[in-house]
User: Which sequence fits this backbone?
């Protein structure tokens, strides 16, 4: 039992279901102004970053399936902020994207000892990129909807919404350089030693930053595995922690990564590249520039590499004992080899 | 321990894959076990017995042999002498010392890259040397990296993700 008002600062407490339930009851009581009954919690063992709990809450005769997400201090990208995700998801309601409804959030330590938000639990399951045996019809339907949702995101007029304040100062001229600088900053925060090849990659990225055709909301991790589907319908696009304003080609370059289509030329194992480009262009009016997609694919490889270094650092610091972190980091040299090829083949 | 390291790694990997993982029912635990297999595969070509304890033992052996030699010189029948070859062997370096040297040399090469960023006159030849080093080094490292087990490791993440 945690004393009322005490912080849930440690991950151990965040993993203690009784502690989390007790805090959830307090938060929901405050937010709804009613007595709330919290059902059993289920922790979903996914990802390396935010903790995810599913639970049922009942108040004033209403029963609702909800999701609590917590950004733990030992997470891969810690320290976290809940507000950007929450504000983005809230602002994007009505954009035409399938999204979970968000309800409440907090960034202080008072409630859970970490940033948090609560949203609806959407029906569906997240597909894996390995060995998902889609029928041709399902594959075609999900592929088309994945493009449609991305097009809706990139069509969204963010000006005049709270999203504008989250990433002020992004222009078509500086969108790429801001991302390169941000990930270089993260890399420097995590890396324990400089390596010539990595420095050479960074110099290449900086020398080739393209002008964006327009500034849009960028999801930042748009791919197979980050959406839910039921039958042949995408029910929600998930994982908005890397969302920002930038070049729409960034999402295209990321979803085109080879990592997300093992053993198949289909982007995200769902859609041929030509179909992706044609459908996307028709829906957004943005002419896809292969040179820009190539740059952003290279940038994506660098981002993967930086995340690997972050995973190595997280494990080395003892913040996590998850063996997937050093295992993932062991593939860094393969990413550098792919980057070498990407640099040589820049159109 | 007298088994070869390679055999120990091979046995650990085989046991995890054929005896332990098939009996694990929890998906997250299976993912962790596959990650352990992946790490063992990656460690296998990189690891040798720790240099430190061996160096300590060798220093003690040298001290004992030297003392035996000193004592033996006063004896009518001398004990067997230490061979000249063994006596001339230089001190061993530790793995950690090697890593520090590697990091210092990489830092030096990075500083050369920083210098090249200023487009110095005649820098092209130096850049070519660095490019060659980087090209070869990334291949050396890829050759040490085991084929990734992402699919097996992430097998737990597909069905449970919710929001």
Assistant:
């Amino acid at each position: 039992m945690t004393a009322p008002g005490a912080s849930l600062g440690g991950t151990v407490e965040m993993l203690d279901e009784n502690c989390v339930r007790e805090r959830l009851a307090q938060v929901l009581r405050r937010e709804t102004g009613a007595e709330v009954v919290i059902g059993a919690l289920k922790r979903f063992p996914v990802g390396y970053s935010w903790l995810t709990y599913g639970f049922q809450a009942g108040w004033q005769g209403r029963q609702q399936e909800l999701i609590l997400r917590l950004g733990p201090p030992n997470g891969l990208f810690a320290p976290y902020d809940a507000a950007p995700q929450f504000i983005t998801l809230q602002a994007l309601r009505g954009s035409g994207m399938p999204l979970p409804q968000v309800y409440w959030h907090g960034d202080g330590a008072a409630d859970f000892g970490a940033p948090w938000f609560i949203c609806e639990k959407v029906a569906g399951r997240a597909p894996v990129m390995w060995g998902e045996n889609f029928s041709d019809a399902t594959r075609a339907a999900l592929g088309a909807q994945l493009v449609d949702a991305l097009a809706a995101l990139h069509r969204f007029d963010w000006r005049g919404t709270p999203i504008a304040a989250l990433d002020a100062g992004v222009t078509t001229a500086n969108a790429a350089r801001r991302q390169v600088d941000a990930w270089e900053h993260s890399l420097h925060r995590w890396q324990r030693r400089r390596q010539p090849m990595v420095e050479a990659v960074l110099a290449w990225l900086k020398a080739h930053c393209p002008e964006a055709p327009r500034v849009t909301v960028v999801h930042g991790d748009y791919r197979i595995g980050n959406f839910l589907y039921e039958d042949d319908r995408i029910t929600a696009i998930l994982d908005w922690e890397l969302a920002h304003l930038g070049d729409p080609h960034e999402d295209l370059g990321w979803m085109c990564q080879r990592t997300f289509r093992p053993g198949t030329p289909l982007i995200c194992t769902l859609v041929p590249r030509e179909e992706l480009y044609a459908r996307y262009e028709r829906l957004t009016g943005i002419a896809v520039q292969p040179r820009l997609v190539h740059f952003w694919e290279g940038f994506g490889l660098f981002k993967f590499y930086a995340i690997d270094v972050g995973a190595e650092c997280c494990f080395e610091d003892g913040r996590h004992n998850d063996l997937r972190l050093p295992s993932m980091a062991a593939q860094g040299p393969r990413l550098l080899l792919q980057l070498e090829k990407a640099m040589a083949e820049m159109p | 321990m007298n088994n070869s390291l390679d055999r120990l790694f091979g046995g650990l990997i085989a046991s995890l894959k054929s005896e332990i993982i098939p009996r694990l029912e929890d998906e997250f635990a299976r993912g962790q076990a596959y990650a352990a297999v992946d790490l063992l595969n990656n460690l296998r070509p990189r690891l040798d017995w720790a240099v430190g304890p061996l160096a300590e033992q060798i220093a003690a052996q040298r001290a004992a042999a030297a003392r035996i030699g000193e004592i033996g010189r006063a004896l009518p029948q001398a004990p067997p002498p230490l061979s000249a070859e063994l006596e001339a062997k230089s001190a061993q370096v530790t793995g950690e010392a090697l890593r520090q040297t590697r990091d210092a040399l990489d830092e030096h090469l990075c500083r050369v890259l920083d210098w090249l960023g200023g487009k110095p006159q005649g820098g092209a030849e130096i850049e070519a040397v660095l490019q060659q080093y980087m090209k070869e080094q990334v291949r050396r490292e890829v050759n040490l990296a085991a084929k990734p087990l992402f699919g097996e490791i992430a097998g737990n993440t597909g069905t449970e993700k919710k929001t």
In short: The mean pLDDT of chain A is 92.
